[in-house]
C-alpha cells in the first residue's frame, strides 16, 4: 500500500499504472458516498502519480490551482485511511489545507492563483538560499483563462523565477470560458485552437 510519496519511488511503470488505476477507484468509491469534486479529481490521477514520483514533497512545492482536484494527492500524502471522512464533520477538507498536511503547500479554493503562489514560494526559497527549489503550479484549462494567471506568468518571466507550470488541458472545464472575440463561447480547452 502506498501511503506517502516516498513509497512510490521504487515502482516501475507497470506498477505506477496500477497505482493510478487503484487511485481512480478509491476516489470514485469514496466520493460516491461523501460527495465532492469527482471529475476534476479523476482528471488528474495520472498527473498526480507522475508529480509525486518525480518531485520530492514536501521539500518540493506543488500548488494545485483551486485545489478541488486534490483527492488523489490527499490519498498519496498520508491521508488514505482518513479519506472516507472527506467533506464530513471533523474529516478531510475537500480542498488543500495547509494545517491538514505538510504536503498541502497552499490552501486555495479560488481560481488562477497557483502560478503566483508557486512563484512566491520560488522567490522565498531563492532568498533563503535553498539548494532544492522545485515549485510546481498545476493549473487547468478553465483557471488559465483568469487574468491573474497571465499576470503571474508575465511576472515570473520578468523575475526569471525557477518554477514549473503544468497546464492540465483535459477539456474538463465546467463552464464556457471563451469569448465571442476569441472564437466563440465554448470552453477554452485545447488552447492551441486560439493561437
Short description:
With 195 residues, the protein is mainly alpha-helical. It is built from 6 helices and 3 strands.
Describe the structure.
The chain has a 3-stranded parallel sheet, covered by helices on one side. The mean pLDDT is 87. Strand 2 (135-140), helix 6 (147-159) and strand 3 (164-168) form a beta-alpha-beta unit. With 195 residues, it is mainly α. Helix 1 (13-34) packs across helix 3 (45-54) and helix 5 runs parallel beside helix 6. The longest helix is centred in the first third of the chain and has 22 residues, at 13-34. It is 37% helix and 8% strand. It contains 6 helices and 3 strands; from the N terminus they run H-H-H-E-H-H-E-H-E.
N-to-C order of helices and strands: HHHEHHEHE
Strands, count: 3
Low-pLDDT runs of 5+ residues are none
- The helix tally amounts to 6
Q: Strands across the major sheet, in which order?
A: 1-2-3
Q: Give the strand content.
A: 5-15%
The major β-sheet equals: 3 strands, parallel
Structural class: mainly alpha
Kindly report how far apart the N and C termini lie.
Answer: 44 Å
What is the overall silhouette? globular
Summed over residues and divided by their number, the pLDDT gives a mean of 87
| Range of helix content | 25-40%
Radius of gyration: 17 Å
Amino acid at each position: 500500500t502506498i501511503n506517502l510519496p516516498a513509497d512510490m519511488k521504487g515502482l516501475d511503470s507497470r506498477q505506477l499504472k496500477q497505482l493510478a488505476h487503484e487511485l481512480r477507484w478509491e476516489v470514485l468509491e469514496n466520493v460516491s458516498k461523501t460527495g465532492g469534486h469527482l471529475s476534476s479529481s479523476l482528471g488528474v490521477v495520472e498527473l498526480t502519480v507522475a508529480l509525486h514520483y518525480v518531485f520530492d514533497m514536501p521539500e518540493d512545492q506543488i500548488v494545485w490551482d483551486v485545489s478541488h482536484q486534490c483527492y488523489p494527492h490527499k490519498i498519496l500524502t498520508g491521508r488514505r485511511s482518513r479519506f472516507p471522512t472527506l467533506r464530513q464533520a471533523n474529516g478531510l477538507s475537500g480542498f488543500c489545507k495547509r494545517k491538514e498536511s505538510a504536503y498541502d503547500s497552499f490552501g486555495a479554493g479560488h481560481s488562477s492563483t497557483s502560478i503566483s503562489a508557486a512563484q512566491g514560494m520560488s522567490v522565498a526559497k531563492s532568498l533563503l538560499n535553498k539548494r532544492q527549489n522545485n515549485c510546481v503550479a498545476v493549473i487547468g484549462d478553465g483557471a488559465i483563462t483568469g487574468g491573474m494567471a497571465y499576470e503571474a506568468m508575465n511576472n515570473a518571466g520578468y523575475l526569471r523565477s525557477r518554477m514549473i507550470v503544468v497546464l492540465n488541458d483535459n477539456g474538463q472545464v465546467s463552464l464556457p470560458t471563451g469569448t465571442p472575440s476569441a472564437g466563440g463561447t465554448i470552453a477554452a480547452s485545447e488552447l492551441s485552437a486560439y493561437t
